[in-house]
Amino acid sequence: MGEPHGWWGRKLHKLTAGTNELDAEDLQAASAAAGAVPMSGCRDRDETCVAGTIQAVTVRARSGAPTLEVDIYDGSGTVTLVFLGRRDIPGLRAGASVKASGRITVQEGRPSIFNPRYELLPVPSASA
């Protein structure tokens, strides 16, 4: 659906759109405000900066070593941040907002960034 135009169009959109759609739009706006690109546009081997809300944090074993995997969502898509040799990173928990940059790697259709540079962001406020 296109961008609503004018005051009335925005109000009508807020009244008729579903909660998930409005939340996704808020996340996309917060991501853009942080200077990140939409995750839906990330391509294999691109050097990129993404921002979003952490949906899941998982510890897995890769080649016998622990790996922390953090799924972040920006309203347009999901990227997995992979921290090799880590079991925990303070502050990276479900619900937190994070901005990360690095090279995208797509494996089995899942975009990932290995050992990204990252910073925690303030949690975006709920839309009024």
TrEMBL record:
InterPro entries: NA-bd_OB-fold (IPR012340), NA-bd_OB_tRNA (IPR004365)
Span of domain OB: 50-121
One MF annotation (Gene Ontology) recorded for this entry: nucleic acid binding
Gene3D superfamilies reported in the protein's UniProt record: Nucleic acid-binding proteins (2.40.50.140)
Protein name in the entry: Nucleotide-binding protein
